[in-house]
Amino acid sequence: MKPGTFLKSTPLLADTVFENSIIFIVEVNDKGAMGYIINKKYHRALNELEEFKHVRSFPLYVGGPVDQEHLFFIHKRPDLITGGTPIADGVLLGGNFKEAVTHINNNLLTGKDVTIFLGYCGWDRGELEAEIAEGSWEIIGKETPFQEN
Length: 149
What we know:
single chain; 149 residues; mainly beta; Transcriptional regulator; AlgH-like
């Protein structure tokens, strides 16, 4: 498993938080793996969160069940957002969120450039590989972690 991999849940995960989920893996190391659910919009937009009430409307996604009190993001605009960590195929993890919000507000970033998540998916070392081996996840081909607004 490597960063940039896409996983699709199988029927074994029906009736769980991962039912019908597509996961984008952003980090794999000796402690485990981390990713985001990329196909489930959150019921509120960024500007509906108190801290961002003066920002223009921008979609949020449910990134996963872990740490849903925090926002995380991926993007493909290192020319506008500094400090991101390269994942794969020109996609970066995180960076200067204040810059991202400023550029969203100024209409320089769209859903094709950045995706913002509430929470993330995390697996301990060997856990995700075991779930793939048991058939809970299938590795799928090229998807895009970015959406239209």
